[in-house]
Design a protein that fits this description.
It is a single chain. The protein is an alpha/beta fold. The chain has eleven helices and eleven strands. The strands form two sheets. It has a six-stranded mixed β-sheet with strand order 5-4-3-2-1-6, sandwiched between helices. A five-stranded mixed β-sheet has the order 8-7-9-10-11, covered by helices on one side. The N and C termini lie far apart (about 75 Å).
Length: about 350
């Protein structure tokens, strides 16, 4: 008799839950379809898996993460869950995080509604999260709201689950009742992610039906970024395409993050305090993530890299080495006069 594994697996009863329980599959599919345009807008989105260890999981490249990638995990429940049902979901999320530290970026429960006494779960965490950037200069303001929310979660679900929910779980209320509502959600998501699109009703309907069929035929198999872009391209007669440019934001002490770009954290290498880390730290925290990013970009056919952010000349040398032309890359470097492309060379006759 084999020993039981520490964490969830693809072949235990929980891992087979998505296959065994078909009633909510349409709801899961419709919710995921509405998320696909937002995923595709993210430069570091690799793909999505349906009916793996969760209802569906999106995978992202993350150069500074312990495993080089992170997961966003979703459990979608079409009915109204009672408190014990919610606890079961949160316990399962917690078990995965305990067995697989550093793997999940966030775990999300998706459901149409919550019981009246727990409706605040779908309202308060999102309210606190959305306001947090505005109050960032005032740590005490954010701290008070965070502490109140954590206390409410612990009061409802006890510790340590309440603390785990505060740090690791999202609750997304999505009242998608039928195919028409689901298709409308996809249309809104497409125009939000790609504002310049000019699509007809026939094209958006074709995109929705194509994604429904693709997901239905691909349960348990990863749908890659290229698979999803290809399906949408064919359904919209080429209106939706991926330009294959990799946007890379280098974050320093004076750089604002770009949510859709792959981010390299170079804050320790700005020299703001006239000191620089030792060489071993450069290797582990900057050179290795850049090398991993270059390898990932090559594997996904991305040869043009559009840089943004701010960095010192020392970091610029490192960027130039990681994405050098000899390795097949061309850079679009920001300047005051606009981007300078390293392959914008004069003709031989010039």
């Amino acid at each position: 008799m084999t020993a039981e594994p520490d964490g969830p697996t693809l072949t235990d009863s929980a891992g087979r839950g998505g296959i065994n329980a078909q009633d909510g599959f349409d709801y899961q599919t419709w919710d995921a379809i509405a998320r696909i345009p937002g995923w595709l807008k993210q430069q570091h989105f690799d793909g999505v898996l349906f009916e793996g260890l969760e209802d569906f999981e999106a995978r992202y490249f993350a150069p500074h993460a312990p495993h080089g990638h992170l997961l966003d995990r979703f459990q979608a429940k079409s009915g109204t869950l009672q408190k014990n049902d919610l606890r079961d979901v949160f316990d399962r999320f917690s078990a995965f995080a305990t067995s697989n530290p550093g793997v999940a970026r966030v775990q999300t429960l998706v459901t149409p509604a919550l019981p009246p006494r727990l409706e605040w779960l779908g309202r308060d965490p999102d309210r606190v999260r959305r306001a947090r950037p505005f109050y960032r200069p005032f740590p005490a303001v954010n701290g008070a709201s965070d502490a109140k929310l954590r206390g409410d979660l612990v009061g409802a679900f006890s510790s340590p689950i309440g603390d785990f929910i505060a740090d690791n779980v999202d609750i997304d209320l999505r009242p998608i009742a039928n195919r028409g509502v689901a298709q409308a959600a996809l249309v809104a998501a497409l125009f939000n992610a790609f504002p310049d699109l000019d699509l007809t009703g026939r094209q958006t309907a074709a995109a929705f039906e194509t994604l429904v069929r693709l997901i239905g035929a691909s349960r348990g198999t990863m749908l890659t970024r290229a698979d999803l872009f290809g399906a949408l391209r064919d359904a919209t007669s080429g209106a939706i395409t991926d330009d294959q440019t990799l946007r890379l934001n280098v974050r320093s002490d004076g750089t604002h993050p770009e949510s859709s770009a792959v981010e390299i954290d170079a804050t320790a290498y700005t020299g703001a305090d006239n000191t620089y880390p030792p060489s071993a730290q450069w290797r582990a925290d900057l050179l290795d993530p850049l090398s991993a990013t270059a390898s990932w970009a090559r594997g996904h056919g991305r040869s043009r890299v559009q840089l943004s952010g701010s960095y010192r000349i020392s970091t610029a040398f490192v960027l130039g080495w990681a994405f050098r032309a000899a390795s097949g890359f061309e850079l679009a470097i920001p300047t005051r006069g606009g981007p300078w492309n390293t392959d914008d060379r004069p003709a031989l006759s010039t």
